[in-house]
Amino acid sequence: MARPMTRKKPETVLVAADERLTSRAVLGATIGNILEFYDFGTYSFFAIHIGRAFFPASDPFASLMLSLATFGAGFVTRPIGAIVLGSYSDRAGRRPAMTASFAMMSAAILLLAVTPSYETIGIAAPLLVIFARLVQGFALGGEVGPTTAYLMEAAPAERRGLAVSFQPASQQIAATAGALVGEILSLTLTSEALSAYGWRIALLLGAATLPFGVWLRSALPETLHRPDAQAPDVQPVRRSPTARRIMALGFVILASCTIITYVTGYMTTYALNTLQVSAPLAFGATLISNTIGIAAALLGGWLADRAGRRHTMIWPQIAALLMTYPVFFWISESRSALALLGGLGALTLIGTIPYSAFYVSMAERLPKNIRGGAFATTYAFAIAIFGGTAQPIVTWLIHLTGSALAPAWYMLVASAAGFCAMLMIPETAPLKIQNAALR
């Protein structure tokens, strides 16, 4: 028989000995995640302006609530995207799932950026915005699980914590980029111009990354078939008790992390709408907070590799619990630049560290054959329930009580729930497990 004229190109797979390739692959996955979360986070920063464009109302509170509800609509499709794209990453590989997620995300943000206002096309405008948000939610639902699995699988065992910490750090980088764009636009444009088209510029900057992001992710080597090194002993069964338990605890911790993240991301709107500070100060506070969050996320991963996952989760979480109410009291009473910048920055520094350690801990405890889908599904349901409702709930609580401390109450409840779940998470650091076995 004649041999085929063409042969399928062999899949590039990471191997443990190729540290240079591993580092490059981790960087590629992280950059793609930065680009995606910039797009998603920008909507939050410009919620007031988007509300005016697509949801005009005589009551500014009603317009803001409609805008935030549409922001929440993107969380409805997150679980669907998590199941579809997360499971796809466990079957076909991490790379194709991440590439598909990025392409859909960029197309949705482009649609949102170019949709005419309500005054131009009427009811079609909010309908198109809602559709774009649903597509964005689907794409991001399948983003976090495969990316976290990829970072954990691509890294050497002794540096998994630091590698996986680029997942939360990349979200902070994206939020910082969005806040920086908002700061620049608020300083260079008038309030009228910012409401009319300034927010569209910010969205189009994210959409412009589509060709680069698709190319970057399509060139990543695959990690799905790389042999695990020093992985904790878990049952490689889809419905194992270990997997179910870690997913249940993970849901609580991710819900806590989600509420804290989205309430913190809401600080621009909070500062403008509740504290009545200037736009440059509001965007500047978010910019500084997110910049600190980048360092805190990487510090959490670094500490998790050295001190273990549990210690890095529990002690900073206790500190964050003790700090939350005093910081918000200081901000709400003084309404000064020092309180807003210093208080929010300190809370971000302490509050971000535990979740980097948790990300790698959960990824290590999940069997590889379900890691991408299980992590994505747990994350997506926590985000869908608590992320999509966090900002509307805080806005409603402030409106109902008239208290600027409402965000602190919500964050305290979330932090306490996350702390209780962290206490039940077992240690997964490979070096810690080896040392315990030798004793």
Description:
The chain is an all-alpha fold. It has helices spanning 19-45, 47-54, 60-73, 78-91, 94-114, 118-121, 124-141, 144-154, 160-164, 166-188, 191-207, 210-218, 241-265, 267-273, 279-307, 309-334, 337-365, 368-401, 406-422, 430-438. Helix 1 runs parallel beside helix 5 (94-114), helix 1 packs antiparallel against helix 12 (210-218) and helix 2 crosses helix 11. The longest helix is centred in the C-terminal third of the chain and has 34 residues, at 368-401. Pfam families: MFS_1 (PF07690). It is found in: Cell membrane. This is Alpha-ketoglutarate permease.
Brief rundown of the structure:
This protein has 20 helices and no strands. The chain has 439 residues and is mainly alpha-helical.
Strand content: under 5%
Uncertain regions spanning at least 5 consecutive residues = 1-10, 230-237
| Rg computed from alpha carbons, rounded to a whole number of angstroms | 22 Å
CATH class call? Mainly Alpha
CATH superfamily: MFS general substrate transporter like domains
Alpha carbon gap, first and last residue: 62 Å
According to CATH, the fold-level topology is Growth Hormone, Chain: A
Quaternary class: single chain
Q: By helix and strand content, what is the structural category? A: mainly alpha
Instruction: Give the tally of structural domains.
Output: 1
SS field, number of helical segments: 20
Overall morphology: globular
Mean pLDDT across every amino acid position: 81
Family: Belongs to the major facilitator superfamily. Metabolite:H+ Symporter (MHS) family (TC 2.A.1.6) family.
Organism: Bradyrhizobium ivorense
Subcellular location: Cell membrane
Keywords: Cell membrane, Membrane, Symport, Transmembrane, Transmembrane helix, Transport
